[in-house]
């Protein structure tokens, strides 16, 4: 296997919000002869916000990272806010390690990154964290752990690119982006 492709998954939230707000907007403004300007404005705002969410998610989910061990390069393909396709290429030689950690906050993410000597990092994937099982009678929420996809990718990439695998670091502050 010479190329590993990592895609950013689509979120279901924008499509779900559109599916909920369009019928809601239609119901609040029917029949049109009795609709007030306020209800029409409310409907327009709801639909507009859902469309913006859908647009932002499609831009975010267009990011694809290709790690090629034959050419020894990492290519990141993405779309700009205006949907223009762009790509950036990085030499594998500038990376010394691969790491995985959880970000702080209410919506923690499991970040998988390639790290340089200067401690700058190239984000490969931002994944939902896994969770450890807790006893049934505990009052605590399940502890978050490394996602299954990150557990698979991290050692495979370290072996293929011949770089250090620093493992899963737990909760960490984010690194400086490359």
Description:
The chain has helices at residues 13-28, 37-60, 148-161, and strands spanning 3-7, 64-68, 73-79, 85-91, 95-102, 110-116, 120-127, 130-131, 144-145, 164-171, 176-177. The model has no long low-confidence stretch (mean pLDDT 83). α1 (13-28) runs antiparallel to α2 (37-60). The strands form three sheets. A five-stranded mixed beta sheet has the order 10-5-6-7-11, with helices on one face. Strands 1-2-3-4 form a four-stranded antiparallel beta sheet, with no helix packed on it. A two-stranded antiparallel ribbon has the order 8-9. With 178 residues, it is of the alpha+beta class. It folds into two domains: 13-60; 93-177, no CATH class.
Pick out its properties.
178 residues, alpha+beta, 2 domains, 11 strands
Main pleated sheet: 5 strands, mixed
Radius of gyration: 21 Å
In terms of per-residue confidence, which ranges show pLDDT below 50 for 5 or more consecutive residues?
none
Widest β-sheet, arrangement of strands? 10-5-6-7-11
Tally the structural domains.
2
Helix content: 25-40%
Secondary-structure-based class equals alpha+beta
Summed over residues and divided by their number, the pLDDT gives a mean of: 83
Could you tell me the number of beta strands?
11
User: Hey, roughly how much beta strand do the residues contain?
Assistant: 25-35%
């Amino acid at each position: 296997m010479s190329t590993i492709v990592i895609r950013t998954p689509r979120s279901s939230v924008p499509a779900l919000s559109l599916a909920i707000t369009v019928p809601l907007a239609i119901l609040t403004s029917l029949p049109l002869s009795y609709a007030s300007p306020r209800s029409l404005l409310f409907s327009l705002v709801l639909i507009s916000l859902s469309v913006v969410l859908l647009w932002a998610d499609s831009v975010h989910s267009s990011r694809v990272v290709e790690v090629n061990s034959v050419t020894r390069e990492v290519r990141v393909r993405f779309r700009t806010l205006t949907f223009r396709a762009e790509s950036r290429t990085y030499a594998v030689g500038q990376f010394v390690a691969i790491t995985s950690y959880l970000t702080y906050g209410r919506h923690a993410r499991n970040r998988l990154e390639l790290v340089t000597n200067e401690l700058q990092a190239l984000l490969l994937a931002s994944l939902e964290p896994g969770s450890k099982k807790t006893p049934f009678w505990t009052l605590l929420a399940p502890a978050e752990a490394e996602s299954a996809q990150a557990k698979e990718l991290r050692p495979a990439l370290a072996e293929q690119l011949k770089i250090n695998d620093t493992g899963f670091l737990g909760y960490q502050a984010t690194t400086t982006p490359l």
